[in-house]
Amino acid sequence: MSRREAWLSAGLVFVVALLVRAWAPHWCPSRSQRTRLLLGRCPNLVDGHGLTSNTLWSYVTPARGPATGAFGLFFPRPAFEIWLPLPTLLAAIPMMLLGSTSYAATLVVPVLLGALIPVLAWRIGADLAAERGLPLERARTLALGSGS
């Protein structure tokens, strides 16, 4: 496989993966609990309120901080009692650049990063085919099949 064919194949896999990743969230109208939590934390970070959350989404963690209610619950509360902050930090980047705190803005980074995974799988398939000395047509089929 020539270098030009390799770049064209990688580009094709990336474009198809990007279209699928961009279309999938709109096909499934209900958002998961984790997505709703992310949508609640990112605007707080972008608006300068820090890594806080305005929701109580888990009863696993004990109530901490100033006791303002019957059970010592308070808002806003620390955002990362269980989940790690990387998805929020990555989703906040396009929110700051686009000036929007919408659901579409939170999808920019996951869609782009998710579209890179099939390209990496394609590259591993192409390297494996070259290592095994497969014929050109079988090498293309293996590489594109693993990336799709």
Textual characterization of the structure:
With 148 residues, the protein is mainly α. The protein has 5 helices and 2 strands, in the order ααββααα. The chain has helices spanning 3-27, 33-46, 86-98, 103-132, 136-147; strands spanning 52-53, 77-78. A two-stranded antiparallel ribbon has the order 1-2. The radius of gyration is 21 Å and the shape is elongated. The model has no long low-confidence stretch (mean pLDDT 77).
Note the topology:
Layout: H1 3-27, H2 33-46, E1 52-53, E2 77-78, H3 86-98, H4 103-132, H5 136-147
Antiparallel strand pairs: 1-2
Would you kindly provide a brief summary of this structure?
The protein is mainly alpha-helical and 148 residues long.
Round the Cα radius of gyration to an integer and report it: 21 Å
Overall structural class, as computed from helix and strand content, comes to: mainly alpha
Total strands = 2
Cα end-to-end separation: 18 Å
Mean pLDDT reading: 77
Largest sheet, strands/sense/barrel: 2 strands, antiparallel
Shape: elongated
Q: What amount of the residues lies in strands? A: under 5%
Count of alpha/pi helices: 5
Instruction: Extract low-pLDDT stretches.
Output: none
| Helix fraction bin | 55-70%
